[in-house]
Design goal:
heterodimer, A: about 375 residues, alpha+beta, Butyryl-Coa Dehydrogenase, subunit A, domain 1, Butyryl-CoA Dehydrogenase, subunit A, domain 2, two-stranded antiparallel ribbon, globular, B: about 400 residues, Butyryl-CoA Dehydrogenase, subunit A, domain 3, 3 domains, 4-stranded mixed sheet, 4-stranded antiparallel sheet
C-alpha cells in the first residue's frame, strides 16, 4: 500500500506553501477582491516562471511533464492561499480540454503558451442562472462561427482563449475561440467572490475551431479531471478555514475561558475536521485515478467533488460562526473563505448535480476498489 | 501512488490466504456477518478450535513481541491478515477483548511469569478474558468508578458492581480497575488487578439489549478475594494502567465493519416505489451519494493509515474519525433503508424481510456503536483536544477527594 504522494511531491508541496505564504497572504487576496484588478499579475508570472502552469503539460508542448499528481499538490496550496490567479481556468480547464480534444496543430499552437502562462484560457459553459443542461444550451456553432451568450465565465475579462461549449451541426461541440479576434464582446460580471473575476460574453459570429471527438464526452472528461483538481483546492481552503477557527477559539475568551474549551465549539470543529479528512481521502483517491487515467475516474471524481464541495462550505461557514460578530465583518478574513467556498462549489456544477452523476456512475460502473 | 503490496506484504498475504483457505469457508452473498446472538457452547467450541489453528499457524498475536508469545510482526501484517480473514466465514467476537486489550495490559504491566502463564493460552483461545471497567456511575467518566478494593494481608477484598462487561459469562479471567482510596482525588485512588472469573462472590447477570441479544452483563462483587500478586502496576496507579487498556480499545473497536452503502444500493435496486425502482428516485439517489462519499472517504482514510503502517510510521490523526462516522452511518442508513420498505419495513423475520432483515437488525444494534468504546461525544472531544489542540474540559472534580465529589440521583 502506497496511498500517498512521493517525497518529491511532498517537497514540491512545502515549496509551494512557503512561496504562497510569502507572496499570497490574505492581504493579497483582499487587494484583488477590493479592486477592479482582475488578478495578481506578478504572482501569476512568478508561478509560471517556477513551472507551475506547465507542471502537467507534456514536455513535447513546453511543459514540465511532472504529471497530474504534481498539479494536485499545487492545487491544494493554491486553494489554501485563495490565490487570485486564473490557474484553474487556464490549466485545469482550457489546457486539459486542448490536451484531450485538440488536434496536433491546436496543441502545438496553444499548449506551450498556456504552459508558460503567456496565454490565459478558460472554459465557457453557463448561460445565465440555472443548470447548464447540454440540451438547452443556446450558443451555436455554424460554419466555423460562434454565436451566443455565456455568463458567468471565470477569468473571462483577461482570458485570451476560451473553450466554449455550444450546439454544433451534430450535437455538442467544444469550440476553441481566440478571444482577441472579432465577434467577441465582454464585460465584467460581478460575483460573490471578486477575488476571482468573472465576465459576461456575447459572441456574434466569432471565428472558432472545433475540438475533435464527441463534444459531450470530452467535456465530461475535462470536468471529471478538473473536479479532482478543484477538490484539492477545496481541501486546502477547508483546512485553512479550520485552522483559522481553531486559532481564534484558543485566543478568544468568554465567560472566563477560551471559547475553544466549550464543547459546543469543540464538537463543531471536530465535525469540520471529520468532513475535511473524508474529503481529503476522497481527493487522494481521485488523484490516484487521475494519475493512472483509471476506469474509476468518473466515480472517483464525483465522490471527490461532492465531498470537497461540502467540506469547504462547512468549514468556511463554521469559521464565521466561531468568530461570532467579528466573523461577518469585512475586516476579518473569514468572508474570503466563505466566498471562495461557494464559488468553487458552483464553478463546475453544484453538489446536487455531482451527486446525481455519482449515482449514475454507480449504477453502471464497476464498483471501485 | 498505488494500492499494491510490497513484495514482503504480498508474500505475507499469500501465506495468510493459504491458511484461511484450509481453515474456513469463504463468505458468500451479502458480505455481512453477525456475531451469534448468544455465544452458546457450540459457537464457543468452534471459535476456540479456529483460534488454536490460527495461533499454531502463526497468525495470532502477529504484532506482539516474542516475549509475549507473539510473532514480532508489523502492524501492516496484522491489517493484511484482518483483510483476508474478513473474506472468510470465521467465528469471531469472543477473543478480541482479551487479545486486543486485557493481555497487552497484562504483558505491559505484569511479570514474565504472568506472560508465560496467560498470554499463550489466551492466544490459542484456551482461556477467554473480559474487561471489568464501566460501572453504573462510571461510563464516559470511567474514573468515577466506585468498586471498592480493601487490603487484607496478601489479598484484596473487592465489593461493588461492574456493568457492560462483554462476555463475562463465558470468560475465564478478567481485568478490573477498582478504587482503593476514597480520600484521594478520583484519578489517584485507583488500583488495577486481574482475576479468576470463577472466584467466589462473583455474580453475573446478563443485560438484555434493544436487539434482544445479551452480549454483555452486570457483574456483582461481594467480598471477592484477589491475591496481591495479581495487581498490575502500583497501588493508586490504576488510572495509568487503564490507559494502556483503553489505547488498545480504540484500535480493536475502530476496525469493526457493518452494513454499508453497497447493501443500500442493492436494496434500492430491488425495491419498487410508486414510480419504479427506488434506485431511480431522486431523494434516494441523494442519500446514496451522501453515504457513498462517507463510506469511501473512510475506506481511503484507512488506506492512508495502512500506508503509514506499511512504511513503519505512526498513522496520522485521520485514523480517529472512523468510529464517529461509522456509528452514525450505520444507524441512519438502516433507518432510511427501512423507509424504502414502507410499512413492511417493520418486519424482522429474516424469511419475510428483504436481505434477511439486515437493516432491521442493524437499526437495533447500531445505537451501541455510537456509545461503546467511546461515545460520539467523547470521540469529538478526543478529536478536538488531541488533533486540533483545543483545551480539555474544565473538570470540577479533578483535585478534590473522591468522597467529596458531588453525584446526581442517577449516580
Amino acid at each position: 500500500m502506497n496511498f500517498d504522494f512521493s517525497d518529491e511531491l511532498k517537497l514540491l508541496r512545502s515549496e509551494a506553501q512557503a512561496f504562497l505564504s510569502e507572496r499570497c497572504p490574505p492581504s493579497t487576496v483582499r487587494r484583488v477582491l477590493e479592486s477592479t484588478e482582475p488578478y495578481d499579475v506578478a504572482l501569476w508570472k512568478d508561478m509560471a516562471a517556477m513551472g507551475w502552469t506547465g507542471a502537467a503539460v507534456p514536455e513535447a508542448y513546453g511543459g514540465a511533464g511532472l504529471g497530474h499528481l504534481a498539479l494536485c499538490v499545487l492545487a491544494e496550496q493554491l486553494g489554501a492561499a485563495l490565490a487570485p490567479v486564473p490557474f484553474s481556468s487556464s490549466i485545469y480547464l482550457a489546457a486539459e480540454a486542448i490536451a484531450i480534444g485538440g488536434s496536433p496543430a491546436q496543441k502545438e499552437a496553444w499548449l506551450p503558451k498556456l504552459a508558460s502562462g503567456e496565454v490565459i484560457g478558460t472554459l465557457a459553459l453557463a448561460e445565465g442562472p440555472g443548470m447548464a443542461s447540454l440540451r438547452r444550451l443556446r450558443a451555436t456553432v455554424r460554419g466555423g462561427q460562434l454565436t451566443g451568450e455565456k455568463m458567468p465565465v471565470p477569468d473571462g475579462e483577461i482570458a485570451d482563449l476560451a473553450i466554449v461549449v455550444a450546439q454544433g451541426d451534430r450535437g455538442i461541440v467544444l469550440a476553441l475561440v481566440d478571444l482577441r479576434g472579432k465577434g467577441v464582446s465582454r464585460k465584467p460580471a460581478e460575483t460573490i467572490d471578486p477575488s476571482r473575476k468573472h465576465a459576461q460574453f456575447v459572441f456574434e459570429g466569432a471565428p472558432c475551431e472545433i475540438l475533435s471527438g464527441d463534444g459531450e464526452a470530452v467535456l465530461r472528461d475535462v470536468e471529471n479531471r478538473a473536479a479532482i483538481l478543484f477538490a484539492f483546492e477545496q481541501i486546502g481552503g477547508a483546512q485553512r478555514a479550520l485552522d483559522m477557527a481553531r486559532d481564534y477559539a484558543l485566543e478568544r475568551y468568554a465567560f472566563g475561558r477560551p471559547i475553544g474549551s466549550f464543547q459546543a465549539i469543540k464538537h463543531k470543529l471536530a465535525d469540520v475536521y471529520v468532513a475535511t479528512e473524508l474529503a481529503r481521502s476522497n481527493a487522494y483517491y481521485g488523484a490516484w485515478a487521475l494519475s493512472k487515467n483509471a476506469p474509476e475516474l468518473a466515480v472517483a471524481a464525483a465522490a471527490a467533488r461532492v465531498s470537497a464541495n461540502e467540506a469547504f462550505y462547512h468549514a468556511a461557514k463554521e469559521n464565521i460562526q466561531v468568530h461570532g460578530g467579528m466573523g461577518f465583518t469585512w475586516a476579518f478574513d473569514c468572508h474570503l473563505y466563505y466566498r471562495r467556498a461557494k464559488l468553487l462549489a458552483l464553478t463546475l456544477g453544484s453538489t446536487r448535480v455531482w451527486k446525481e452523476r455519482l449515482v449514475s456512475q454507480l449504477e453502471t460502473a464497476n464498483a471501485p476498489i | 501512488m498505488d494500492f499494491e503490496d510490497t513484495r514482503e506484504e504480498a508474500e505475507f498475504r499469500a501465506r495468510a490466504r493459504a491458511f484461511l483457505e484450509k481453515a474456513a469457508p469463504r463468505r458468500e452473498g451479502t458480505n455481512m456477518l453477525y456475531r451469534a446472538a448468544t455465544a452458546d457452547a457450540g459457537f464457543i467450541a468452534q471459535a476456540k478450535d479456529y483460534q488454536a489453528r490460527k495461533a499454531d499457524a502463526g497468525f495470532a498475536g502477529i504484532t506482539w513481541p516474542k516475549e509475549w508469545g507473539g510473532q514480532g510482526g508489523s502492524a501492516i501484517e496484522q491489517v493484511i491478515f484482518d483483510q483476508e480473514e474478513a473474506k472468510f466465514g470465521v467465528p469471531r467476537g469472543i477473543f478480541e477483548i482479551g487479545l486486543g486489550m486485557c493481555i497487552p495490559t497484562l504483558c505491559t504491566w505484569g511479570t514474565q511469569a504472568h506472560r508465560d502463564r496467560y498470554a499463550r493460552k489466551a492466544l490459542r483461545g484456551e482461556e477467554i478474558w473480559c474487561q471489568l471497567f464501566s460501572e453504573p456511575a462510571g461510563g464516559s467518566d470511567l474514573a468515577a468508578l466506585r468498586t471498592r478494593a480493601e487490603r487484607d494481608g496478601d489479598d484484596w477484598i473487592i465489593n461493588g458492581q461492574k456493568i457492560w462487561t462483554s462476555g463475562a459469562h463465558y470468560s475465564d479471567f478478567g481485568v478490573i480497575v477498582t478504587r482503593s482510596d476514597f480520600d484521594a482525588p478520583k484519578h489517584k485512588g485507583l488500583t488495577y488487578f486481574f482475576l479468576d472469573m470463577k472466584s467466589p462472590g462473583i455474580e453475573i447477570r446478563p443485560i438484555k439489549q434493544i436487539s434482544g441479544a445479551s452480549h454483555f452483563n452486570e457483574v456483582f462483587f461481594t467480598n471477592v478475594r484477589i491475591p496481591d500478586s495479581q495487581r498490575l502496576g502500583g497501588v493508586g496507579d490504576g488510572w495509568k494502567v487503564s490507559l494502556t487498556t483503553l489505547m488498545n480499545e480504540r484500535y480493536t473497536i475502530g476496525g469493526r465493519a457493518g452494513v454499508d452503502v453497497d447493501e443500500l444500493i442493492e436494496l434500492a435496486r430491488k425495491v419498487e416505489l410508486d414510480d419504479g425502482p427506488a434506485l431511480k428516485n431522486a431523494v434516494v439517489r441523494e442519500k446514496i451519494a451522501d453515504w457513498y462519499v462517507q463510506s469511501r472517504g473512510l475506506k481511503y482514510s484507512h488506506f492512508r493509515t495502512m500506508t503509514a503502517l506499511s512504511r513503519g510510521e505512526t498513522p496520522g490523526p485521520e485514523s480517529s474519525i472512523g468510529k464517529l462516522v461509522t456509528g452514525r452511518k450505520l444507524q441512519d442508513m438502516s433507518a432510511f433503508a427501512m423507509d424504502l420498505l414502507e410499512q413492511g419495513g417493520v418486519v424482522t423475520d429474516p424469511a419475510l424481510a428483504p436481505m434477511a432483515a439486515l437493516f432491521q437488525q442493524t437499526l437495533m444494534t447500531s445505537p451501541s456503536s455510537r456509545i461503546a468504546g467511546g461515545s460520539d461525544e467523547i470521540m469529538r472531544n478526543i478529536i478536538a483536544e488531541r488533533v486540533l489542540g483545543l483545551p480539555p474540559d474544565i473538570r470540577v472534580d479533578k483535585d478534590i477527594p473522591f468522597n467529596k465529589v458531588p453525584t446526581g440521583k442517577k449516580g
